[in-house]
Design a protein that fits this description.
The structure is a homodimer of 470-residue chains.
Chain A lengths: L19 H4 L3 E5 L8 H9 L5 E5 L5 E2 L2 E4 L11 E4 L3 H13 L4 E4 L10 H17 L2 E3 L5 E4 L4 E4 L13 E6 L2 H8 L7 E7 L8 H9 L6 E6 L5 H13 L3 E6 L4 H10 L7 H5 L7 E3 L6 H10 L8 E6 L2 H14 L8 H10 L10 E2 L1 H5 L2 H13 L3 E8 L7 H12 L3 E5 L7 H8 L3 E4 L2 H16 L1
Helix pairs in contact in A: 3-4, 6-7, 10-17, 11-17, 12-14, 14-15
């Protein structure tokens, strides 16, 4: 193995329009299309089904695949192609990329592995040649060593992995950007529990298009409400900062997670996507950027982005009120708030009086408000407590540790109360590992944010509060 | 509200046999039995169905309930009762407890709220009288303000909440002890995904029986393999230490989580179970106790206990190897290891040669070992890598970030490899929120530990490694 050269010289951001042909294509070609549903080409073909534009199949060894005509090469296609997906081994890629450049393609997506991530001179040189080719032709290259891209807004699923199709929930749609395809797949599976993704965009070795370019694209995508970003390479901090500024300037908040923060992790990046891991200190430059939340744990990324998509523009107060049907979870909630530096002050006199009036004697008319299991079976009591706490100027948000034994139908009413007061209502699901119809409905409800961890919830609230107040 | 007095004077541990009549009863009486399935008495009655001993129903206003005879009071029962469950409001409790004491009952479980947690003199005095009664009669009192207890080993489910019945998986059974009943309910719901609980024991205000007594009981319970403990009150550290020493002395490891570590949380305890929260420094005395792991986040408690139940007695090495089908999760894994202070050294020369031989050129024959998605579809390649890493003396455990797209049938084979080397194999499920047949099977497999968070996994490994090596 040889040393891997650092990332190419600093270049300008591919400004949103530059990715239009890649991500909003009118024409797509699949090179290496196959009738074998288990092969790379067959899996990618299956995922491309339903593309609303013109899809061309390319395979010199086939005349048709499942009744669709097959073309021998890119040159023989009847029109220039916006987005060419290369589902072929690395050996054949360079020749096809040449053809694409000559035929005026807009972008190529290179799925094959065997480039810089191998640590070999051969692989590194092959990747470098792709970069030169793309630059000379003004053509974008995605990958190599990547899973592909999906843009639900454009009906495009140009990837060999099947990202789950999610519901299109207005106001809650997340643009998911991940250098690692497998990580994108793992995170996007939360779509099956109600998370709405507008795009899932991966870039692997990122020889040309990288996560910063994707963020810039999403900055101008009206159907993307917030961005979840996971990346390994951090060679060019300035470009990423520019992209984040574009996104937040357009009102899109960003949750991001740096993969490879430890020494061992940074070393491993060289063998995965061979991108420049960046100095850990660079990450600090992204903390405190208004509209951007840095999360440490990957498990918190999608939940935080979903919260950011739903949270109001203004923070009314830094304090947070906790309302629970269980004293134990109420206490754990204020413990988590303290860890995150979120104040949980006591209610004002008027609020206390309203809580006392709404609760049985053995409940806690304070913060955290333990309404007890008995009261949570009485919807009027819970709604009266929530109204009292949301009306209190000491509180900027309401957190509800909730579970399967609590009444799910109450949640939308509690969300509506939050909207009326301009304060976010966060549900933390305490029933371990049990997704239910209630969690899915809550996820889809633009007035409610859903977390499965108290620390994720208060971490997001702390960041939101700081983000807006700075 | 008045100030709540601190916990009663230091007393000896109720040594295991003292809880026998409560938790392994031959006779149970339910006072307040009701035909209304939504009432406290009706719900408790439904949960007591299937009790293999003699169950007596007590309700002065009924002659029978669903065909079962109903007795007017405790005095009229034909034999002394081991465990009396009081599903009646606080007002009637004291009189019945008197009757129980006179009739030679072994223990009473008081579900009613309205005691010290109200912060009133009346409630506090009523609870103090229960303590005196119990002590004078040599009768145990559970509660008040509690959900009850379930001992699956004895077929006893003396609780108003329905704790899920779990499979009885040898070598994996967790005794769950939680002062808060709602928290016990939330945690025990993981039974639906394969976690096996031998007991679920709650004690609410803990006026007599407390979590330390439960831990001492479980210390001598052959069917409990590990203990998960969540508690608020920490008045008598010495008693808890004694109980933990009994448990670990009998080979049962304990994962524990203190509820109410923050100032706000400690204040809230007084309104929940009104137990003495204890000095935060007391908790430090429990860290580093061999066999005991202190977890900060409640979400990690059951996973950590399940791991402790399955992990080998000896640690072969402090280093941990990571084997993944995704470079991104592999990097995140070593990041999490670094956060937890777990070393992830590089493999020895022989191991590297074996990895190179088993993997494609673009995979990473190192630690973390990114076998790539391609190789994880080749079971022989994955097994060869796992065997090489487990055989390396640098590693004491193998961590597998895994997901729905990886072959689930491989996991039991990987677990068997770990057993052969005397090293734990930990599966970290990266497919967000998606429990599948594979997760349930893994949970039930005594040779595999399952986590849904990289931090939970490496936190547990770090604690296990320290616990055994100290």
């Amino acid at each position: 193995m040889t040393d891997i050269p650092v990332a190419p010289a600093v270049r300008p951001l591919h400004f949103p329009a530059a990715l239009d042909r890649l991500l909003r294509p009118a024409t797509v070609a699949l090179v290496g299309a196959s009738a074998n549903p288990r092969s790379l080409g067959g899996r990618t073909l299956a995922n491309l089904a339903g593309f609303p534009g013109r899809l061309y199949l390319v395979n010199p060894h086939q005349s048709d695949i499942n009744g669709q005509p097959c073309h021998p090469d890119i040159a023989s296609l009847p029109e220039p192609i916006d987005c060419v997906v290369l589902a072929i081994p690395a050996e054949g890629v360079e020749q096809v990329v040449h053809q694409c450049a000559r035929a005026g393609a807009g972008a190529v997506v290179v799925l094959a592995s065997g480039y810089s991530e191998t640590g070999t001179e051969k692989g590194t040189a092959a990747q470098a040649r792709l970069v030169v080719l793309a630059a000379e032709a003004g053509m974008r290259v995605v990958g190599p060593n990547c899973v592909g891209v999906a843009n639900q807004v454009a009906g495009l699923h140009a990837a060999f992995a099947e990202f789950p199709r999610s519901g299109r929930v207005q106001g809650c749609r997340i643009g998911l950007v991940s250098q690692s395809g497998a990580l994108a797949l793992a995170m996007s599976q939360s779509a099956e529990h109600g998370v709405s993704f507008s795009q899932v965009l991966t870039c692997g070795n990122s020889c040309d298009v990288d996560v910063a370019d994707y963020v810039a694209f999403l900055a101008e995508e009206p159907q993307c409400d917030a961005i979840a970003l996971a990346f390994e390479g951090l060679a060019d901090l300035r470009r990423l900062q520019q992209a984040l500024a574009l996104a937040t300037g357009n009102g899109k908040r960003v949750a991001l997670c740096k993969v490879g923060t430890s020494e061992a992790g940074r070393a491993a990046i060289r063998y995965h996507t061979a991108t420049e891991p960046g100095d850990p200190a660079l990450l600090d430059a992204l903390r405190g950027v208004p509209g951007v939340v840095v999360v440490e744990r990957i498990e918190a990324l999608v939940e935080t982005a979903a919260f950011l998509a739903k949270a109001p523009a203004a923070v009314r107060a830094n304090g947070v009120a906790v309302l629970s049907g269980s004293g134990g979870t109420a206490i754990l909630a204020v413990d988590a708030a303290a860890r995150a530096g979120v104040p949980t002050p006591q209610p004002g006199t008027e609020t206390t009086q309203r809580l006392v009036a709404a609760l049985p004697a053995f409940a806690s008319a304070r913060n955290p408000c333990d309404a007890t299991a008995q009261a949570t079976r009485n919807p009027e009591s819970v709604l009266a407590c929530a109204e009292a706490l949301l009306a209190d100027p000491a509180y900027g948000a309401l957190v509800l540790p909730w579970g399967r034994s609590q009444t799910p139908t109450l949640l939308p009413q509690l969300g509506a109360l939050g909207v009326r007061h301009g304060k976010p209502v966060c549900v933390v699901w305490m029933s371990q590992l049990l997704e239910t119809a209630a969690t899915t409905e809550t996820e889809r409800d633009p007035t409610l944010a859903l977390f499965r961890s108290l620390d994720h919830c208060f971490g997001a609230l702390a960041a939101w509060s700081q983000m807006v107040s700075t």
